[in-house]
Structures are given as C-alpha cells and as structure tokens.
Design goal:
binds fe (iii) ion, single chain, alpha/beta, binds 3,4-dihydroxybenzoic acid, 8-stranded mixed β-sheet, 281 residues, 9 helices, Protocatechuate 4,5-dioxygenase, Chain B
C-alpha cells in the first residue's frame, strides 16, 4: 500500500529560483536563507520519497482569465518548466507518475472532489522553486512528481476548510493505492506578502510564525480562517497559504515536526519551510 510519509510546507519566491540558477546562494543577502534550507535538504536526501504530490499555484502561466479551474491534477508523463517571460528555467523536467495520478483522479472525483484533469501542463515557479529549495540542483529530480494546481490568483479561491478536506481525501486516495510507495506531499506558496496596491511590501512575521505553529498543532482551527483574515493579516497574496492546508489535511494527527525555519525578508515575503513526518506511516 502507498503511504504519505512526509509533508513539506514552503514558500515559492521566484527570485529564490533565480538565485539558485545563478549560483548566488552565498551572496550576503541570500546566505541566511540558504543556510536555513540546508538541514531540510540534508534530511530529504536521507529520506527520499518515491513520489511527491506538489500542491502549488500557477501564476497565469498555464492558466489565465480564459480558464480558471479551482483544482487541477496533472496526469501526464512529464511536465516542462513554464516560460514565465524570460525563457524556461534550466531545471529538470518533472517526471510524472500517471498510474498513481489517475488513481488519485478517480478516487478524488468519486469522493466528491470534482477536480480538473490535465494531460498537458507546464509548471511555473510555484512548483519548480519548492523543488529547488528541497533538492538543490540535481541532474534529474530525485522522485516522480504529481502536480496539483490550486487557483489562488483569481477570486474566488477555495476556502481553507475545503483545502483541508481535500488533503484528507488525498490521504484516502493514496492509502487505497496498492503499490508500496513512499509519498511526500508539498504545500507551497505564501507566506505573508502583497505585491500590489497601497500595502505592497507588507510582511507580517508574527502572523506567519503563528501560522506555522498552528498548522502543526491546531490545523482544524487554521482551516476555519476566512479569506479576509489572510488578506488583512498576510496581504493580498498571503491567501496562497490555503495550499499548506491541503498538505496538512493529508497528514495524520500524529505528525512529528522534523524541521521548521522562517526568515524575513526573502524578496517581498516572509519565507517559511516546514518538514513534517507522519508517525502513522
Ligand atoms: C514574489 C513572491 C511570490 O509568491 C510570487 O508568486 C511572485 C513574487 C516576490 O516576493 O517577489
Ligand atoms: Fe506566488
């Protein structure tokens, strides 16, 4: 049987991808951030998953105002890094796991989560930056990747509660797959940031740190947080954090917080990283 063994929560700041691609990690501005990433990178090298379900958001790269699916599961053989206006990132393509992905699609939809299915989808910094944060610069990503894109760009995004319950449905789906696979789930995006308007540049470290704490110890409480609270406290783009609840919902009540790191500022955001191990796996 397949098992969810690991949950990763991480920001997806695009400039972090550029810093990695240009080997600028030792730059004084970025060094503290990358020093903070290192223990998680060391840990995952020793605890490699077979497959990672990466919950992320597309930033008008593969979708746009013409098409706004709330949840999209990638079932393709592979996913190329998207061209976000300056060419594709020179990172490995993500190799899919279509058999498990189709099982997830069937299980989720019969479990009443009417997700969209993508046979073709380029993946932008929302997915590639979290992989770079955890896996650095390998020739190939060390595991298969199943992308799950969530609309948090165009109003209305899904509620925190819906995301949390989707995570639970993903757990049921994974546990009903009959191959022995170690599955990691990534919840990505955020943390506090606002890229537009009068409050552009807003970062709320207190909110972010409480979110990290509560996500582990009081996920049901976090799942009740309304969108307006994310907007008010964590800025207009802080609502990306609902994606971390999908990851948390897919973990059991018995989680071990293996690593937690928070750093301000990273570009225009507070950057968080959390590694959870499922003690029921
Ligand atoms: C920034 C952060 C994001 O999450 C994003 O999608 C785009 C830009 C930033 O900090 O610049
Ligand atoms: Fe973003």
């Amino acid at each position: 049987m397949a098992k969810i063994t690991t949950g990763i929560g991480t920001s997806h700041v695009p400039s972090v991808g550029a810093v990695i691609d240009k080997n600028n990690e030792q730059d004084p501005y970025w060094k503290p951030l990358f020093d903070g990433y290192q223990p998680a990178r060391d840990w995952i090298k020793e605890n490699k998953p077979d497959v990672a379900i990466v919950v992320y958001n597309d930033h008008a790269s593969s979708f746009g105002l013409n098409l706004i699916p709330t949840f999209t599961l990638g079932v393709a053989d592979e996913f190329l890094p998207a061209d976000e206006g300056y060419g594709r990132r020179q990172v490995p393509k993500a190799i899919g796991e279509p058999d498990l992905a189709w099982h997830l699609a069937e299980s989720l939809i019969t479990d009443e989560f009417d997700i969209t299915i993508a046979n073709e989808m380029d993946v932008d910094h929302g997915l590639t930056v979290p992989l770079s944060i955890m896996f650095d610069k390998p020739e190939e990503w060390p595991c298969k990747i199943i992308p799950l894109a969530v609309n948090v760009i165009q109003y209305p995004p899904p509620s925190g509660n819906r995301c949390y319950n989707l995570g639970k449905a993903i757990r049921r789906a994974v546990e009903s797959y009959d191959k022995d696979l170690k599955v990691a789930i990534f919840g990505t995006g955020g943390m506090s940031h606002q890229l537009q308007g009068e409050r552009a540049g807003l970062v709320n470290a207190e909110f972010d740190q409480k979110f990290l704490e509560d996500l582990v110890h009081d996920p049901v409480g976090v799942s009740k947080k309304p969108h307006v609270e994310y907007m008010r406290e964590a800025g207009s783009e802080g609502v990306e954090l609902v994606m971390w609840l999908i990851m948390r919902g897919a973990m059991s009540d018995k989680v071990k917080e293996t690593y937690k790191f928070y750093h301000v500022p990273a570009s225009n955001t507070g950057a968080g990283l959390i590694v959870l191990e499922d003690e029921q796996a």
